[in-house]
Design brief:
- By secondary structure, the protein is an alpha+beta fold.
- It has a single domain, classed as Histidine kinase-like ATPase, C-terminal domain (Heat Shock Protein 90), CATH 3.30.565.
- It is 32% helix and 26% strand.
- The chain has three helices and five strands.
- The protein has a five-stranded antiparallel β-sheet.
- Helix 1 runs antiparallel to helix 2 and helix 2 packs antiparallel against helix 3.
- The radius of gyration is 16 Å and the shape is globular.
């Protein structure tokens, strides 16, 4: 039986350059969680989009505000929590960017992509800020069970 992976939390200033550093940790989790390379690449793009949105829209690129990313590996799923100090938005109000009337409008594509890749995408709000929660179910290999 393999040793279970423990959650890891990374906190950094709002600076888009930190996304590459966070990717190193995220990629290690994806390698150990039985996702195919293609699934792993799509998952990372969804996570990267969530982090960039937290920095751009949540913290308004204010480098004094932190972003916290927590990777939570579980037996049946991989959960990623991305927290910022913004007030958040209702994800269901973002228009579908693939509809003809929205094709030329900026924005919304990242959230649309996250919803397409992940099994659950939600935004939890609190007085301290917002937390984007991304969840992807995973198959457990026999060696892990």
């Amino acid at each position: 039986m393999a040793t279970p992976l423990l959650p890891v939390t990374l906190t950094c200033n709002t600076d888009l350059r930190f996304i590459d550093l966070i990717q190193v940790v995220g990629a290690e989790f994806l390698k150990h969680l039985s996702f195919t390379q293609e699934d792993g690449e799509q998952l990372w793009l969804a996570i990267q989009e969530g982090i960039a949105n937290a920095m751009r829209h949540g913290n308004k690129l204010d480098q004094s505000k932190p972003v916290r990313v927590t990777f939570i590996p579980k037996t049946d799923r991989f959960e990623i929590q991305i927290s910022d100090q913004g007030k958040g938005i209702d994800l269901d109000t973002i228009p579908n960017p693939n509809l003809p009337e929205n094709l030329m409008k900026p924005g919304g594509r990242g959230v649309f992509f996250m919803k397409a890749v992940m099994d659950e995408v939600r935004l939890d709000r609190s007085p301290e800020g917002s937390t984007l929660v991304l969840i992807k179910a995973r198959k457990v290999r026999e060696a892990e069970a």
